[in-house]
Amino acid sequence: MYSENKIKQMLAHLQSERDFNTTALAVFYFQYKHNSIYRQWVDFLKCKPADIKSYTDIPFLPISLFKSHKIKSFQGDGELVFSSSGTTGMIPSKHYVKELALYREAYNSSFEYFYGPISEFTVLALLPSYLEREGSSLILMAEDFIARSNYSESGFYLYNYQELYQQLISLRQKGRKVLLLGVSFALLEFAELFKIYFPDLIVMETGGMKGKRKELLRSELHSILKKSFGVEYVHSEYGMTELMSQAYSKGEGLFYAPPWQRVLIRDTNDPLSLLQGQKSGGINCIDLYNLYSCAFIATQDLGRRNKNGSFEILGRFDSAEVRGCNLLVQMD
């Protein structure tokens, strides 16, 4: 069994599918040993760790358990706790983070893998609903992006859309590389008030329409935003409270994961079976940077993998429960 420091070194030097498989197995054995809830789940499924030879054989933990259990692969309190957003009355998910530095390494490496150094961008963060609550991993990431930017104009915006509009005009005139990172409902509100032709602007939506506006299809939202900002594509970020890393889309709703992540598709009728080819089903996500929590998560999102390695988000399960969760709760 590899030590946690050795696993971190392996994460930084992933070059091939073989490297990914070796590292995924190392993370699995580490978490089976140190994460009591995940170990219960694996044992409940009658899965023998010694029989697992490929990352596709590793059991995925239902994401709903982050609402009811402390999913930790370490002892003690850790450095901070992230909590998910949700409508009033919902139980939030909690992610217990042992090392903030590892989270920073994960999201900075994810962004740089697809876009280059964040220091080259002026970062404008339009994230009002996240700024108005505590425990947001997205806000921490945006704060760090702003701090790492080389430009003083970088900053947060709440509902001051007029100020944001003027800033965008100024930055366009200066020829800056600009990242506008925004929650969907706020970007839509801005788009209804202002129009600007800024074809080089990276407009990146992070989701977040639930409880704020009528839900739109991603294609509908992007069509409105493209017309308002004068851009050819709208970018998207795919992340969640329970993960450490992000996948990104540069347009058309096609997401790509960084080398330490994999998205697999499970059968909605048989959640322990993976689908091959371009079939749609539930999204299982492997995030190897999630070393101190659980790296193998069965999400509540529906999606599809494509031949070119990209994946699409098609929606969410109507039921928030994943088959088998209640049985695990009864084992406590």
For this entry, give a set of tags.
11 helices; alpha/beta; five-stranded mixed β-sheet; disordered C terminus; Rossmann fold; globular; Luciferase, domain 3; 332 residues; seven-stranded mixed β-sheet; 14 strands
Structure description:
This protein has 11 helices and 14 strands. The protein is an alpha/beta fold. Among the domains are: 1-29, no CATH class; 102-243, Rossmann fold, CATH 3.40.50; 262-285 and 298-332, Luciferase, domain 3 (Roll), CATH 2.30.38. It has a 7-stranded mixed sheet with strand order 5-4-6-7-8-9-10, sandwiched between helices. Strands 1, 11, 12, 13 and 14 form a 5-stranded mixed sheet that branches. The protein has a two-stranded antiparallel sheet with strand order 2-3. Mean pLDDT is 92; it is low at 320-332.
List the helices and strands and how they pair.
Blueprint: H1 4-11, H2 17-34, H3 36-44, E1 61-62, H4 65-68, E2 80-83, E3 94-97, H5 100-115, E4 122-126, H6 128-131, H7 137-148, E5 155-157, H8 161-174, E6 178-182, H9 184-193, E7 202-205, H10 218-229, E8 235-238, E9 247-249, E10 255-256, E11 261-266, E12 280-287, E13 296-305, E14 311-316, H11 325-329
Parallel strand pairs: 1-13, 4-5, 4-6, 6-7, 7-8
Antiparallel strand pairs: 2-3, 8-9, 9-10, 11-12, 12-13, 13-14
Looking at the structure, the CATH topology of the domain at 102-243 is: Rossmann fold
Strand order of the largest sheet: 5-4-6-7-8-9-10
At the first level of CATH, what is the class of the domain at 102-243?
Alpha Beta
Overall strand count:
14
SSE succession? HHHEHEEHEHHEHEHEHEEEEEEEH
Report the total helices. 11
Question: Taking all residues together, what is the mean pLDDT?
Answer: 92
- Estimate the global geometry from the Cα principal axes: globular
Q: In percent terms, what proportion of residues is strand?
A: 15-25%
